[in-house]
């Protein structure tokens, strides 16, 4: 059984002040086995982020199914399950990393990562230890650990965002341009974590404009223009644009 299967997925958006409904994407289909990594490539505006947000249930699809093999609930359609079930999956099984950081303004960098582990049921001592390991790995200056993220640079916020999501070791991890504002050294750190997560069984869906980053990392590539799914080595870069 696949870990994730997108079947006939389509999404439309309504522009209310114009009273128009515009198709965003349609007829998207692909599947992933456990610990596989698919990279989605395509021009800006082609709907890549819409797929990730729909898997995470920020959006609801208009057509098709998003089947996920949950550890807690078994095989479910993410577009049909209850809000309570989806909240559980976001908390324990499905992680999401975007290039933007939305957090409580009066919570420190360190506590944000600790909290991510505490809500998984880890004890305080282990959560503190693992948080420090994650922040060290992503080279966030220890002087920042007890500061509020609203004072951070864009790159620092992004590294914190990645640390918060990956420290939980989710079964399914969605990556929406997670290296967009990172320098080369930070990108290497992200790649190391992705490789480790894959080895430990995490399934990943990612969007990257940095094609070199994807080389040798993705198992499959889905091209938004041609609607084709191929082995990564055969087609990395086709249809991608910054």
Automatic annotation (TrEMBL):
InterPro entries: AAA+_ATPase, ABC_transporter-like_ATP-bd, CP_lyase_PhnL, ECF_ABC_transporter_ATP-bd, P-loop_NTPase. It comes from the Bacteria. The keyword Acyltransferase does not apply. Pfam families: ABC_tran. The keyword Membrane applies. Residues 4-240 form the ABC transporter domain. This is Phosphonate C-P lyase system protein PhnL. Keywords: ATP-binding, Cell membrane, Lyase, Membrane, Nucleotide-binding, Translocase, Transport. Belongs to the ABC transporter superfamily. It is found in: Cell membrane. GO terms for molecular function: lyase activity. SMART domains: AAA. It is a peripheral membrane protein.
